[in-house]
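User: tokens in, sequence out, please.
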């Protein structure tokens, strides 16, 4: 457990806040490029600021301050024709990357370089972007993503689907080196050994599920500082997901689905997700107001939560159920929370460095940022004594057969 003062320090992100100061040193997802189809001005609520995407000089997109109504809720997104720009307010630069418009809200004259991650260097044909709204603080949304053990419980499927029919859905694949579906692996071996290593981009998280017959399932995921994760979706795809604060009590997840093999079926993946979300806010159709469509019969026979097969809904229920801002003064972390503990230490160190003006001490803000590749995110089954080599070779083989430059 931590003090309320510390909990406030690492969760609050408005102008002048400690964690907000750190997040403002990095490019932040602000909108999907498809949102420009809704009008010439797009409302953006980001880091506690009410903004709008507009065209500036030379027709370049910028984020401008908009005039918001008094006590306007964070989830209010006015129509393009109703947006009024505050010409005296700050403006921020915008950069497009693979379907997501990123904004830099920091005070440095030169924004940081984008790392050479797989999601950024893959061709447009191999990346699909989407987002969703969650009614909770950004930090608890991030922390569920860096907990490798939760998948065996929260995402427990009591029946295994045919992996061939699971395109565009996480955990709908066979573990590399076996015919066992990932859902079965997670269900039958729920208590992984977890190690956490610091990297140039954040944290590398390795979860080992020791199986029968001298085999081990290796799952490598990553925390990309300050508030993204990179995880395997299937043998073919990885997910890079940012947890972006709207304000202290609301956040968006922005996800890039990156394919190593063939181009992604963007129409299919968008249709799958629009069945679960409403436009223009991208709010989930399953939510607290309708009990996330909880079905006790499904819970008895199909899923741990009884809330459908979309794992985003499972995560949403878990993090929103903690309250708008999780009360960490009452929590009790355990062995499986290694990555959460390490991440909080990293965030607190970054807060201290930023406050002291040592910006170059923050991850990925030095001159080497543009050369950082990967990160490696992979599932594999290996001989227990050879898991490191086999896991690495599985990733290298996938990259060697890739149609674009995925070398690391």
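Assistant: Sequence out:
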């Amino acid at each position: 457990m931590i003090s309320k003062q510390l909990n406030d320090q690492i969760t609050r992100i408005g102008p002048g806040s400690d964690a907000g100061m750190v997040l403002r040193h990095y490019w932040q997802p602000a909108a999907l490029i498809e949102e420009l189809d809704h009008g010439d001005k797009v409302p953006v609520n980001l880091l506690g600021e009410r903004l709008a995407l507009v065209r500036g000089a030379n027709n370049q997109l910028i984020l401008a301050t908009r005039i918001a109504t008094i006590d306007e809720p964070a989830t209010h997104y006015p129509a393009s024709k109703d947006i009024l720009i505050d010409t005296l307010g700050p403006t921020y630069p915008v950069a497009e990357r693979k379907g997501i418009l990123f904004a830099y809200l920091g005070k440095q004259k030169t924004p940081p370089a984008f790392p050479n991650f797989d999601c950024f260097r893959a061709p447009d044909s191999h990346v699909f972007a989407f987002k969703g709204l969650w009614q909770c603080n950004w930090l608890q949304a991030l922390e569920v993503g860096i907990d490798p053990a939760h998948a065996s419980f929260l995402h427990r499927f009591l029946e295994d689907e045919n992996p061939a029919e699971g395109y565009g859905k996480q955990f709908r694949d066979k573990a590399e080196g076996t015919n066992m579906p990932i859902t079965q692996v997670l269900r039958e071996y729920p208590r992984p050994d977890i190690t956490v290593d610091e990297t140039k981009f954040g944290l590398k998280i390795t979860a080992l599920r020791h199986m029968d017959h001298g085999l081990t399932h290796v799952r490598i995921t990553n925390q990309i500082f300050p508030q993204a994760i990179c995880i395997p979706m299937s043998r073919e795809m990885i997910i890079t997901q940012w947890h972006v604060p709207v304000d202290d009590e609301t956040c968006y997840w922005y996800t890039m689905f990156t394919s190593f093999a063939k181009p992604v079926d963007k129409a299919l993946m968008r249709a799958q997700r629009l069945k679960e979300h409403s436009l223009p806010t991208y709010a989930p159709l399953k939510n607290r107001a309708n009990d996330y469509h909880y079905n006790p019969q499904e819970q008895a026979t199909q899923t741990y939560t009884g809330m459908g097969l979309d794992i985003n809904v499972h995560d949403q229920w878990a993090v929103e159920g903690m309250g708008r801002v999780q009360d960490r003064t009452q929590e009790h972390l355990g062995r499986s929370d290694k990555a959460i503990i390490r991440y909080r230490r990293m965030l607190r160190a970054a807060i201290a460095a930023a406050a002291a003006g040592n910006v170059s001490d923050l991850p990925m803000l030095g001159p080497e940022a543009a050369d950082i590749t990967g990160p490696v995110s992979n599932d594999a089954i290996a001989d227990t004594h050879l898991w490191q080599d086999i896991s690495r070779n599985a990733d290298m083989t996938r990259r060697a057969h890739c149609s674009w430059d995925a070398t690391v």
